[in-house]
Amino acid sequence: MIQIVKDSDTRPWFFLQTAHTTYGMWVMETGHLEHLYYGERITVDSQNPSSCAPLVIQRAFAPGNTCTYDREHPQISMEDICLEVSTLGKGDIREPFLEVRLDDGSVTSDFTFDSYEVITLKEREQCLQDSGLPHSYSEAETDSVECLQIILQDVTNHLELQLFYTLFEECDVITRSARLINHSDATVTLNRCLSAQLDLTEDYSMITHFSGAWAREMHREQISLHSGKFVNASYTGTSSNRSNPFMILGHKNTCETFGSCIGCNLIYSGNHYEALEKDSYGKLRFLSGINPQSFSWELTPEAHFDTPEAVLSYSSKGYGRLSRQLHSFIREHIVRGVWKRRPRPVLLNSWEACYFKIDERKLVQLAKAGADVGIELFVMDDGWFLGRNDDTSSLGDWEPDPKKLPGGIASLSKKIKALGMDFGLWVEPEMISENSRLYQEHPDWAMMIPGHPHSEGRNQRLLDLCNPEVQQYVIDSMTKVFSSGDIRYVKWDMNRNFSDIYSPYLPATKQGETAHRYVLGLYHIMDELTTRFPEILFEGCSSGGNRFDLGILSYFPQIWASDNTDALCRTGIQNSYSYGYPLSVFTAHVSSCPNHQTLRITPLETRFQVASFGVLGYECNLKDLSGSDLNAIREQITLYKKWRDVFQFGTFYRGTENEDSDSETLSWTCVSPDGRRAVGLFFRCLAVPNQSHDCYRPVGLLPDVKYHFYGRNIKYNLKDFGDLVNTVSPVHIKQGSALQEILSRFVNMDGEKEDLTAYGDTLMRAGIALKPAFAGTGYNSDTRLFPDFSSRIYFMEAVE
Predict the structure, then answer these.
(1) Range list of β-strands (E), 284-421
(2) How many other C-beta atoms are found inside a 10 Å radius of the C-beta of residue 708?
(3) Do 690 and 628 belong to one domain?
(4) β pairing state of 755-759 and 304-306
(5) Residue ranges of the Glycosyl hydrolase family 36 N-terminal domain (predicted)?
(6) Whether 402 and 507 share a structural domain
(7) Are 763 and 690 part of one and the same domain?
(8) What CA–CA distance (Å, rounded) separates 45 from 337?
(9) Residues 418 and 308 in one domain
(10) Any bridge partners for residue 164, and if so which?
(11) Any alpha helices (H) in 349-396, and if so which ranges?
């Protein structure tokens, strides 16, 4: 609900009311928009402006050594005011929201209130339809989602700034974006135009951000800002694995279940910029949008520039509540298309089984092994197109290699379909290899500086997606590939960062537009292809999580979270993604051990259980696995299918112990929408000798409902006990001997059984004291074998 309180026709108050939050601002006496409040919902009397007075900071004199706005307002210094929009000049020396260089070379601009309008979401879509950017949306037939459009004018410079505030009340989310229009007679240059500004008087100086690198995505870090500025930004041409655009601002005492925090994200897939600045007066300014580094945009008379949409959400009940608000928003208002709510299939990817060494015979054999254990989708990864035997060639030449696929994609997809599975494949459409037919024919389609040596990344270069002709080539070539067989899934990869950024298509004066125009070109391509092929399940990928953002999720319903499939690493990666993204949008695979990224050996059950808290897939050579491992995988897939709706679309909760970076344990719980079914994970990193007791505390259950709590019935291989078996065996069993091998096939040790019934409040508040773990002092069927990197998965079902 949008409430307008009118003190006068020229100075209204605006209150954006969601289910549990209020965002307030008003028009100052100078005409500027002052931010007043963002927090728990408050009552606003629309008929009584004086009821809003407590929110306004009273000013008598400007702070010393500051510039006042003008002679008529000597008490106002823009340096000490919480603004909705800041610019260079007029006394505000903090980071600006907007930076415009005018035709005379000056950079001062000054935007004051002109008018406002409350519009529907459909009206906002119509207004922004030529922006080339993805936006939040709603499937609701009614126009219940409201948008406040505020128009500011720089009267001196003839510039207009439109601010869009969109309310998703049920999710407690407010989005912001902006449009700048040049009404002057001269071309102006944008050096910065961000999406959201949030000036705060409360101390939200505890920053949670997510840094990383390839195979080390989403490392959660917390920093307390005492003074100065913190910047979270990417300059890779993508949202990047170095710094995801999602951030949280919190109070010092905020934790998983308590305290105030504000989540901030950006619906954008390119260079982004988030900054939190604490000024000399203790106020905080948060900014989010396109990274201004090397950015510029020529704005001709009557032209406009649109910013990506920023996402804001406030929680008074800790990080957990914030995450669930954002999960709901992304599922309902970002992800779209036929796969929005459709259960995602369990896939088998060929990469770690074959790498580039693929052919139709080998792939069909691998697929048969997959079909035998219950795989639903078989994916042919890199190496299938003409001349592609390693990563040094062929990108751009999207034709099947007749030596590897003599019948083409049509023949292979038909054979996979005959096995009872759907077929999918890998592509990397944004790239070009120097050693390719496409490069020989169109070297000017590659993004590079003519006459200059070029930096390399994975032996490939970027196609210049600023060029409409290149965009059309990608659309046409991918349309041909996707139509060449019965293709139900596409993994869309992007394996190098931007460097030496230059578009041969653009003139010299527009080179500052290159990175953003690339992203707009990509969005055009993705929009066209997802419209042409609505039934294909597209999965985004960029060397894993190098482009994991809401922009990609606006077209592709899921993204490959990381090339690192190590179960231990994945607990941290997936736990961190969960702060801002729901489990249904990131994929996780069970791979072989030793792991291909870490050489770590983890139990097969742990690999499955961790990957289940995401969109499950497998990426191992099933043909080489033992019969016992294949039987275990068959049981895993059957179990996952039974609980898939809860894993993928349930409400997700993190255990409170997950917050402690030194914690040896981690727990997750997913609860069905009606609260009557739940599945939980309990994981331990390293075993602790002579410590047998653990407690799992589920979250999100219905307190007054009785649940049947139980675990899996697991048997252990004799080999898991090493030569400890000789303490009970009547004959000596040597490790690695033929006798041990034979016995391990027929003798299995029973695992512990967890089976009880209790009310939800008991399970959540008291927790479940699990069966004792092996502690070196004995073993029986009630002992939980829990060595390094072990986990358990538990199920809770309501009973009458």
Answers:
(1) 284-290, 297-299, 304-306, 309-315, 347-349, 377-380
(2) 13
(3) no
(4) unpaired
(5) 31-299
(6) yes
(7) yes
(8) 41
(9) no
(10) 149, 177
(11) 351-354, 360-373
Please name the residues in contact with 791: beta carbons below 8 A apart, sequence gap of 6 or more: 567, 603, 605, 606, 609, 610, 681, 682, 683, 684
Same domain, 453 and 498: yes
Domain that includes residue 269, residue range: 2-49+65-333
Calculate the dihedral angle through the C-alpha atoms of 575, 598, 623, 347, rounding to the nearest 10 degrees: 30
Q: What is the pTM of this model?
A: 0.97
Q: What is the CATH number of the domain that holds 783?
A: 2.60.40.1180
Distances (CA, A) of 791 to 84, 300, 558, 635: 48, 60, 25, 17
Q: Which residues contact 606 (CB under 8 A, 6 or more apart)?
A: 567, 683, 789, 790, 791
Q: Which of 124, 83, 136 is nearest to 287 (CA)?
A: 83
CA dist., res. 85 & res. 112, Å (int): 10
| DSSP string covering 199-233 | EESS---EEEEEE--TT---EEEEEE--SEEEEEE
What span, in angstroms and rounded, lies between the C-alpha atoms of 395 and 460?
Answer: 8
Task: For the beta carbon of residue 155, count every other beta carbon within 10 angstroms.
Answer: 12
Helical ranges in 613-664 per DSSP H: 627-649
Tell me: the pLDDT tens digits for 654-703? 999 888 878 899 999 999 999 999 999 999 999 999 989 999 999 999 99
Residue numbers annotated as active site = 493, 563
Q: Give me the number of domains the chain comprises.
A: 3
Residue with tokens 């100052």: 28
CA atoms of 556 and 550, how far apart (whole Å): 10
- DSSP result, 763-792: HHHT-EEPPPBP-SS---TT-B---TTEEE
Residues found in the chain: 800
- For 54-98, the pLDDT digits (tens) are 999 999 999 999 999 999 999 999 999 999 999 999 999 999 999
517-566 pLDDT tens trace: 999 999 999 999 999 999 999 999 999 999 999 999 999 999 999 999 99
| Phi, psi torsion values for 735, nearest 5 degrees | -65, 135
